[in-house]
Specification:
Layout lengths: L3 E5 L6 E7 L8 E4 L5 E4 L6 E3 L5 H7 L25 H6 L1
Antiparallel strand pairs: 1-2, 2-3, 3-4, 4-5
The chain binds zinc ion (2 copies).
Length: 95
């Protein structure tokens, strides 16, 4: 398959390719950043990618028993720009 989209990543803050990951198993389309390897979802308000799950979430889940399902604290709907983490992706790459 290899469906990818080019967008800013809220994990590594780079403009990168995001590959569609198991689209049928999850309610929202989950992508994986090819640069940092973490999982992303499309931001609710723009074309950038929001943080979904870290790439080692299964290990974290195993070591931290209180996370019983995939609803973890990284599961955001907003990109780093819209959740206020950074002012602007474009400005970051300028500097
Ligand atoms: Zn990334
Ligand atoms: Zn956004």
């Amino acid at each position: 398959m290899g469906i990818t989209r080019e967008s800013y990543c809220s994990w590594c803050f780079e403009y990168a390719s995001h590959e569609l990951h198991e689209p049928r198993k999850l309610r929202r389309h989950l992508y994986q950043c090819k640069r940092c390897g973490n999982f992303t979802v499309k931001c609710r308000y723009c074309r950038n990618m929001a943080r979904s799950l870290p790439n080692d979430w299964q290990e974290r889940q195993a070591s931290q028993g209180r996370f019983k399902n995939m609803k973890m604290k990284w599961n955001h709907e907003l990109c780093a720009e819209h959740d206020g983490t950074i002012a602007s992706f474009a400005h970051l790459s300028d500097t």
